[in-house]
Amino acid sequence: MASSICRMCLSKFVNNWQFSYGKVLHNSRTIKVRYFSDFKDQYDLVVIGGGSGGLACSKQAALLDKKVLVMDYVDPSPQGTKWGLGGTCVNVGCIPKKLMHHASLVGDAVNDASKYGWNVTRDKTVEWSVLVEAVQNYIKSLNWGHRVQLKDKNVEYLNAKGSFLDENTIRAVMANGKQKSITASNIVIATGMRPRYPTDVPGALEYAISSDDIFTLKKPPGKTLVIGASYVALESAGFLHGLGFPTSVMVRSIPLRGFDQQMASFVTDHMEAIGIPFLWSCIPVCLEKNSNGKIVVTYKDTKTGFTFTDTYDTVMMAIGRSPSTSGLGLENTGVDLNDKGYIISTRNERSTVKHIYAVGDVLEGGIELTPVAIKAGRLLARRLFDNKSDYMDYTKVPTTVFTPLEYGAVGLSEEAAIRRYGNDNIEVYHAFYKPLEYTIPEKSADQCYIKVVCRREENEEVLGLHFLGPHAGEVVQGFAAAMRCGLTRSLLESTVGIHPTSAEEIVRIHITKRSGIDPTVTGC
Ligand code: FAD
Ligand code: NDP
């Protein structure tokens, strides 16, 4: 059905006859163009952002025979770092982080090796350039692999920055400055997040790096200060220390906000025990460069009010991340953002505009993890194009903090369980254990600890499971599946352990906090 707006007039303002929705100027008035049955959008789906969520969503939609385009573009960090296709996880997140974490554990293993009879010695500090090159070579292979996969699956890819002209039209600006208007009947925003810098700390933007820069630093980091106390901060401080660089952490309030706080304090206790100093209750005041090119940090102890200075080779800001939604032209649409810039979802990843969706880090109330972005993206494509009705379940999502002693968790923290059900309705089982491999090198297991938070009822439904120790991610993954199947303490008790492992201590757990009995368990 043709609209009452004349085509001649419309064509003056839009250069693409396939537009089907939008606002146009007609005789000096803005008129909403409703529907032209003879116009068709160019794509069934356009995805803005080629990271974990965007790539998963676009590939799934293309597998369902839809015409799909994904665009990805990386704005350089304030220090000028850029990278290729694949988003945060591949380039400046999970992958380089886990490889550097592993490199630091390898150094630790070399330390232990002599106790096991190996005649090896290790350098004090890693050969940084060798490590960076190896990690970056692997990342380049992943960037390439993503391109190949998109081509194989018939997803069109544009290395372009996308922004909305109206609710159905995206402007794509290519690296060479060329522009293109693209229309789509469904649009997914998967633009992720970028590190935040403080606005009230002079010198921070000029002299501090962020996680966007650490994995490609040209020079070894040297003496490093990491500011922040969550995942990114603690993991980075952990691997830098393990690689041989003297590293301190500046903590404004508590570590690992949102996690079980007893577990979080064991994580930092362990880091302190292996020689990572923590500047508790401190905030940066200003950063300056001295004549030797070192960074002089003035910081304040918020408890005493005293200020201090110290000098570092590298300062890394890890004070959180902000959603990449400014510059997306969302003001040209009805997509609403919350006060932190996250996209508000009316229901199941749908924004406040019916055919515009958001997946991954950019979505309000989501969980900022790669597997979450991937699953949400895939499920969305199946709902849109395959009549499926499965929704992303944001509960019981397992995660691991890859600190020197890894912390894996799934479900509720002890505090959250108490808040939800009340102290009298919660039973907490716990155990300190010693991983067998720690015995010969005589490593301290003071922080190797397990906690299982249950409902205090007949079968004791498991609400939360927390594991601090080597390979925590590998240990917790299977228990997360069990929790989705309704794991109870009775089921844990009836499960046979694998001996000798650390994970078996979870199925052997039997001492409650309430009992006051010493929870230290011994092998065999
Ligand atoms: P991203 O992967 O960030 O992808 C968004 C893409 O969109 C980016 O390429 C961006 O440049 C692009 N983009 C932005 N704006 C535009 C635009 N206008 N036009 C075109 N393209 C645009 N998660 C885990 O599960 N495990 C871990 O171990 C882990 N470690 C991490 C370590 C670090 C240091 C960091 C920072 C994060 C880590 N995460 C980890 C989190 C994980 O990386 C993110 O949750 C995940 O990458 C989010 O995926 P996404 O698709 O939402 O966004
Ligand atoms: P978070 O938002 O989780 O933490 C930010 C940290 O910085 C907090 O400790 C906060 O302290 C502190 N902070 C904030 N502002 C300031 C300031 N002005 N001065 C000093 N300190 C400040 O951010 P992250 O970047 O660590 O992580 C983002 C997300 O990325 C995580 O939620 C996680 O989902 C994902 N991620 C996952 C990983 C994994 O799976 N292993 C690894 C890394 C990231 P305060 O508590 O006082 O506010």
From TrEMBL:
Q: Which residues form the FAD/NAD(P)-binding domain?
A: 43-377
Which cofactor names does the annotation list? FAD
List each copy of the Pyridine nucleotide-disulphide oxidoreductase dimerisation domain by range. Answer: 397-507
Q: Does the keyword Zinc-finger apply?
A: no
Annotated keywords? Disulfide bond, FAD, Flavoprotein, NADP, Oxidoreductase, Redox-active center
Q: Where are the transmembrane segments?
A: none
Pfam families for this protein:
Pyr_redox_2, Pyr_redox_dim
Family (UniProt) = Belongs to the class-I pyridine nucleotide-disulfide oxidoreductase family.
Enumerate the PANTHER family for this protein: GLUTATHIONE REDUCTASE (PTHR42737), THIOREDOXIN-DISULFIDE REDUCTASE (PTHR42737:SF7)
Record's protein name: Thioredoxin reductase 2, mitochondrial-like
> What organism does the UniProt record list as the source?
Saccoglossus kowalevskii (Acorn worm)
As recorded in Swiss-Prot or TrEMBL, the protein's gene is named LOC102806370
